[in-house]
Design a protein that fits this description.
The chain is mostly helical. It has two domains: 92 residues, Rna Polymerase Sigma Factor, Chain: A; 58 residues, Winged helix-like DNA-binding domain superfamily/Winged helix DNA-binding domain (Arc Repressor Mutant, subunit A), CATH 1.10.10. Helices cover 66% and strands 0% of the residues. The radius of gyration is 23 Å and the shape is flat.
Length: 188
C-alpha cells in the first residue's frame, strides 16, 4: 500500500482528479438534462399505464442517458431528440415487460372471458382517429402534438430524415382530417 506523502487526511490533486472530474461531469450533464425532465415525464405519462410507472420510466431513461453521456450530442436540440429516442426505447422495454406481466396474469386467471386486455377510457373521436394511423405515423404525430417536438426533431427520434418526416406528418394530418370530417386547410 502506498503512503500519502502529504500527511493524514490530505490528498494530492492527482489522486483527487478522477473524483472531481466525475462530479463536474455529473453537474454539467444534469444542467443540460434539467429542461428535458418535464417533457420526458409528460411523454411517459401519456403512454404508460398505470400512470405512476411514468416516474420509473423517466428514472430508467435518465440512467441510460447518464450511462451514454459520452455519446450525447453537443447541441441542445439534438440532445432533446437523442433523449426522446432513448425514452422511446425505454418505453418499448416497459411495454414488453407489461405484456409479459399481462400474459402471466391471464394464464393464472381461469375466469377470464377474453385472452386480451382491453383498455377503454371512453375514447374520443380524436383518439379513435389516431388509432386509424399506422403505429409509426401515430408516434410521429404524438411526438409533435403532445410532446412539442418539431417535425424534423420527431423524425430524428423515429430514425427518419427531415423530408421523410414532413411527408409522413402531412399524410397523417390528411388521414386525421378525413377521420374527423374536418375541412381541408386552405393554408400552404
Amino acid at each position: 500500500m502506498r503512503r500519502n506523502s502529504l500527511g493524514p487526511g490530505r490528498v494530492s490533486t492527482a489522486e483527487s482528479a478522477p473524483a472531481l472530474t466525475v462530479a463536474v461531469d455529473r453537474v454539467a450533464f444534469g444542467i443540460r438534462l434539467e429542461p428535458l425532465m418535464e417533457p420526458l415525464l409528460k411523454y411517459f405519462a401519456r403512454r404508460v399505464l398505470p400512470r405512476d410507472d411514468a416516474y420509473d420510466c423517466l428514472s430508467e431513461t435518465l440512467t441510460v442517458l447518464w450511462t451514454k453521456r459520452r455519446a450525447a450530442p453537443a447541441d441542445d436540440t439534438e440532445l432533446r431528440a437523442w433523449s426522446f429516442g432513448i425514452a422511446k426505447n425505454v418505453l418499448r422495454n416497459h411495454e414488453r415487460a407489461a405484456r409479459r406481466r399481462t400474459l402471466l396474469a391471464e394464464k393464472t386467471r381461469e375466469s377470464a372471458e377474453n385472452g386480451t386486455a382491453v383498455y377503454d377510457d371512453g375514447a374520443s373521436r380524436a383518439v379513435t382517429a389516431l388509432a386509424s394511423l399506422t403505429p409509426r405515423d401515430r408516434e410521429l404525430v404524438t411526438l409533435i402534438v403532445w410532446d412539442g417536438l418539431g417535425v424534423a426533431e420527431a423524425g430524428a427520434v423515429l430514425g427518419l430524415s427531415a423530408p421523410t418526416a414532413r411527408t409522413r406528418y402531412s399524410r397523417a394530418r390528411a388521414v386525421l382530417r378525413r377521420a374527423l370530417d374536418l375541412p381541408v386547410s386552405q393554408e400552404g
